[in-house]
Amino acid sequence: MSQIPISQILFVSTALFFIGMYGLFTRRNMITMLMSIELILNSVNINFVVFNKYLYPDKLDGIFFTIFIIAIAAAEAAVAIAIIINLYRSHQSIDVEDAEEMKY
Amino acid sequence: MTASQIIFYVIAAFILGTALLSVTSRKIFRSAIWLLFSLIGIAGLYFWLELEFIAAVQIIVYVGGIVVLIIFSIFLTQQSGKEMARPPLTRVIASVLAVVFGFALSWVLIERNNFQKTGKAFDWTIAKIGTQMLETNKEGFALPFEAVSILLLAAMIGCIVIAIKVPTQPRPTNEETNTPT
Fold first, then answer.
1. What interface predicted TM-score (ipTM) does this complex get?
2. Cα gap A10→A18, rounded to integer Å
3. Nearest C-alpha of chain B: how many angstroms from A101?
4. How many helices (H) and strands (E) does chain A have?
5. What does pTM read for this prediction?
6. d(CA B78, CA A83)
7. Which residues of B touch A11 (CB under 8 A)?
8. Contact B77 A4 (CB under 8 A)
């Protein structure tokens, strides 16, 4: 465990963040965009845990932030899915291009 | 190369490969299943970091809660066997360029900072986490804890209000149906 430098773990979390960004840019389906947001939140969690474990081992703040982010992600996913189901009922589609009258 | 290093590389390749498949798969149900595997891989990374508590929370909340919710909503809103439309080529090229440059910029920042491990052992126990979370002094996290609990309550009520089905026809009231003849 001690042989892996921090930068390699940060490489994984950064790559995960940008994979999520790629999904957010290319997808137009709301559920798949929500999945990309979950990937992004997970990469942030990895960063918090790694920095807490290796740089500040006498504190627990990163673990608390991870737990709170997980709780807020659960609430956010529930609200987003309620909105998606409501939108599907009124528009028969969950594509963001079909919901563009909400802009005006 | 020790066994721990090999396990780390296997977990990292698993996370990144399944995440990439999750954002590029054109069948939405397969995309959700790849996301499930990616989240399990992240839980494995927490196990590798010897943080079993966070790994358990990750499995319970993400794998057991959020992915199941996403799969339910997929079944409620679409035909899961249908393939999604391919994104236009210009959008794919622009996204790949943006992502690659963003990744390069972040990687330069990480390399420049050159984070070094302190070498001290990271001692955490669930008892420590629990007491510090509910403490009210300067180190405690009681206020965010209460804020999150209120947020969860508000999200629950908000979901019910948003997703509730409004009846289109108002029901006939008692006076109309029971009118004496």
1. 0.91
2. 12
3. 19
4. 3, 0
5. 0.87
6. 15
7. 12, 107, 110
8. no
Domain with A86, as residue range(s), is: 6-103
Would the CB atoms of B22 and A35 count as touching at under 8 Å?
A: yes
At residue A16's C-alpha, the angle toward residues B126 and A96, to 5°, is 110
Task: Select from B69, B106, B129 the Cβ nearest to the Cβ of A81.
Answer: B69
Name the residue facing A78 among B19, B141, B159 (closest C-beta).
B159
Structural domain count, chain A: 1
Here the CATH number for the domain that contains residue A42 is 1.10.287.3510
User: One digit per residue, pLDDT tens: chain B, 181 residues?
Assistant: 788 999 999 999 999 999 999 999 988 889 999 999 999 999 999 999 999 999 999 999 998 899 999 998 998 887 656 777 888 899 999 999 999 999 999 999 999 988 888 878 888 888 888 888 888 888 889 999 999 999 999 999 999 898 787 776 665 555 555 555 4
Nearest chain A residue to B38 by CA distance is: A39
The topology under which CATH files domain B1-83 is Four Helix Bundle (Hemerythrin (Met), subunit A) (1.20.120)
Contact A18 B99 (CB under 8 A): yes
Q: Which residues contact B45 (CB under 8 A, 6 or more apart)?
A: A12, A46, B11, B12, B15
